[in-house]
Description:
mainly beta, Immunoglobulin-like, five-stranded mixed β-sheet, disordered N terminus, binds ligand MTE, binds molybdenum atom
Amino acid sequence: xxxxxxxxxxxxxxxxALGGLSLLQRSDLAAATGTGESLVMDTLxxxxxxxxxxxxxxxxxxxxxxxxxxxxxxxxxFVRYHNAVIPEAKxxxxxxxxxxxxxxxxxxxxxxxxxxDFEQIEIAALCLCSGNRRGLFEPPAPGxxxxxxxxxxxxxxxxxxxxxxxxxxxxxxxxxxxxxxxxSGVLPTTPxxxxxxxxxxxxxxNTLIAFEMNGEPLPHWNGYPARLIVPGWTATYWxxxxxxxxxxxxxxxGFWMKTAYRIPKDRFPSGQFGSQETExxxxxxxxxxxxxxxxxxxxxxxxxxxxxxxxxxxxDGGDGIARVEVSTDGGNNWxxxxxxxxxxxxxxxxxxxxxxxxxxxxxxxxxxATSHSGATQxxxxxxxxxxxQHNAVQKITVNVA
Length: 401
Ligand SMILES: Nc1nc2c(c(=O)[nH]1)N[C@H]1C(S)=C(S)[C@@H](COP(=O)(O)O)O[C@H]1N2
Ligand SMILES: [Mo]
């Protein structure tokens, strides 16, 4: 577990965080999130202090230093919502309905039935917002100006979506599986957050309806009592507070599929979601290869007498991380970092690198991950109008004095 004091001190660069809510100096922000906004820590009920982006709907990111732990503690796990009305689930009343025009026997499940009637699986997987690091795009992209903390790695326990769907008897006409949750907008005109998956991904053995996270029930803010887990795909599909799953024979045409979370087709790896593609655009799907330095801040001063430890995490959409290379001279020379424990191909992988600065001065530190498929991080983010999938090599300058 990451000690709360420790991480607040880390991100605040020594400034004490006063109570649950404190405003930190702008100059510390680059260290914590990398965006140009002021940094506000705030505590949602049941959570510890996170970086507040918006209160209504609640959008909170995790301070990067928390990522030094292999699994992100539930109380420090980021929170992302599109709509502001988020009812607390009453388990006696909660039901998950399975239906749609492409099943033969629709049915409902209580939480007890969901837990008892199907085989339980546990998977370590990274939950990554498509817009993580949007705040680092130049020119700026519209949307929440996330720093690097709209992600978290957890051990998820649940049942396979495919086992649940099998009980409903899927018709051969099935094309997509739509997912709806209990949250809604303040105005009736606001589109509910409903997503769909292609049938193949819904039936993937790693796609789970999860009810536990890191050995505990899901926190309210992370989808209690049950959410979808789609390892390898960005978290937009990881629907929280699940209430309805429908197997459908036509492409789902809600706002969150047709309009939002879309990227130009020519710039990203193949989409794997043919039924939602147009000639030019496709839904965002797979996570692309990426990495993050978690223990150093841009502009930090380090003593010349000591070796410098560089720590971070690396991840991709499920091919697994083959190597992480670090440069301490602005990208001229690269050396391999040491990869730490492997928790499975959907988990992020921690890494570490030690270097001894030869002389005082400025060092430009960079980290670059490569997956088992050979994909590697670009020096600049892949431009796209909504600022998704920022995976540029990170550049941090430290002063050795
Ligand atoms: N019900 C519901 N589920 C949702 C969302 C939402 O707004 N409502 N947002 C999605 C998005 S875009 C992200 S990034 C993840 C965030 O998961 P977290 O809040 O548990 O960190 O939830 C996903 N599931
Ligand atoms: Mo997201």
